[in-house]
Amino acid sequence: MNKILIVDDEESICETLTWMLEKEGYNVTSIRDFEAAQEIIKSQDFDLYFIDLILPGGNGINLIKMIKEMQKKGSVIIITGYPNIPTLVDSIRLDTFDYIKKPIKETELKKIIKHAFSLKEKENSEF
Q: In the chain, where does DSSP find H-type helix?
C-alpha cells in the first residue's frame, strides 16, 4: 500500500485530502505544522509528499530541501493557496513532481497521483 504524507496547516485541506486519498486505498498521514513534519520525515519514508509552502513554524521549501538532502525516494508535490513565480522556480530547482493551487479538485488529484505512481513504477522496473 502506498504511503502518502500531507503537510498543510489548514485542517480542512488535511481532512479533505485524507478522505479523498484513503477512499482510493492509500495509507495517509497528515501533519499541520513544520516541526511535526520534520520529525515524521526523519523517521518514516513515504511514496508521495504533499507539502504546503506556508506552515506554522517554518517553510515548505525547507521541508522539501530536507526530503531531497535525506535522499527520500518519494515524489514531492507542492500545494499552495498563494502560487507565485519565485516559489514555482524553487519547485523546479528542487525537482518537485508538481506544483498545484488550492483548492484541489478530486479529479485533478487522482490524475496527478496516478501519473506520479506510474512514473515511479517505470523507474523501479528499469533497475
A: 11-22, 34-43, 60-69, 85-93, 106-125
Q: Using only the alpha carbons of the chain, give its radius of gyration.
A: 13
For the chain, the first-to-last Cα distance in angstroms comes to 21
Chain Cα centroid distance, residue 60:
10
Least Cα distance to 13 among 100, 85, 112 occurs for: 100
pTM above 0.90, yes or no: yes
Across the beta sheet with 98-101, the strand order is 27-31, 3-7, 48-52, 75-80, 98-101
Q: Classify each residue of 72-111 as buried b or exposed e, where b means 16 or more C-beta atoms within 10 Å of its C-beta.
A: bebbbbbbbeeeeeebeebbeeeebbbbbebebeeeebee
d(CA 36, CA 66): 13
- At the top level of CATH, the class of 3-125 is alpha beta
Find the mean pLDDT for residues 70-87. Answer: 93
pLDDT beyond 80 at 122:
no
